Amino acid sequence: MTKLREKPQFETTHPDFETYASAFSSTEKDLLARLSRDTHFVSTTPGMLSGNMQGLLLRMISQMLNPLSVVEIGTFTGYSAICLAQGLRPDGVLHTIDNNPEVAHIADKYFRESGFNHQIVQHSGNALEVLTALPGPFDLAFIDADKENYVNYYEAVLPKIRQGGFILADNVLWYGKVLNPAALSDKETKGIVEFNLHVHNDSRIEHLLLPVRDGLMMIRKK
């Protein structure tokens, strides 16, 4: 999960390109649009929401993989989980983990409305502890939680990913702060920089950093 969106220090694409891309991408589903509005109404950090463009990307990745088992670290109000669930096999399961009970009821409401509630399992608590209890193997993992623990989440989930499976990690550009050495005093920026370097030096995987939204790291386990 991310904090409230700040004004980025740089643009990965020209804003007009993003507007054009949004205009020529599939329209946000009514359920997700309502979820977004409710999130903005009740949360002080609505920027943690994936949003339509990233949600479409997550959905299409999941639909291409057609996973049997998915784990998400960072539920927030459930937007990304619903997008990922749309690619699940009929007997597939998505485990989503969060430690903020204040918004869990929103996710639960929209999981039920989406029709995927029977395939989404919500876990409340420390993600590293919950991950230890989940057996795997997983076809896909999505990391979008506190940035200082990204390396820990990665190392906890990678052994549970099947060979050829994928990990996605959000916010790996962190408002452009990864390019600013002075920002490393911020523990979240430091956590993202360390994560990107850790992944880049990991011979167990191959990876691609996409400059989409706030940066999405795609990782494939060899």
CATH superfamily, called what?
Vaccinia Virus protein VP39
Question: Strand-residue fraction?
Answer: 15-25%
Shape: globular
Q: What is the residue-mean pLDDT, rounded to a whole number?
A: 92
Radius of gyration: 16 Å
Major beta sheet summary: 7 strands, mixed
Number of self-contained structural domains: 1
Named CATH architecture: 3-Layer(aba) Sandwich
The number of helical segments is 8
**Helical residue percent band:** 25-40%
Going across the biggest sheet, name each strand in turn. Answer: 3-2-1-4-5-7-6
What is the CATH fold-level name?
A: Rossmann fold
The SSE string, one letter per element, is HHHEHEHEHEHEHEE
Distance between the termini: 27 Å
What structural category arises from helix and sheet content?
alpha/beta
Poorly predicted runs: 1-8
- For the secondary structure, the number of strands is 7
Q: Just give the CATH class.
A: Alpha Beta
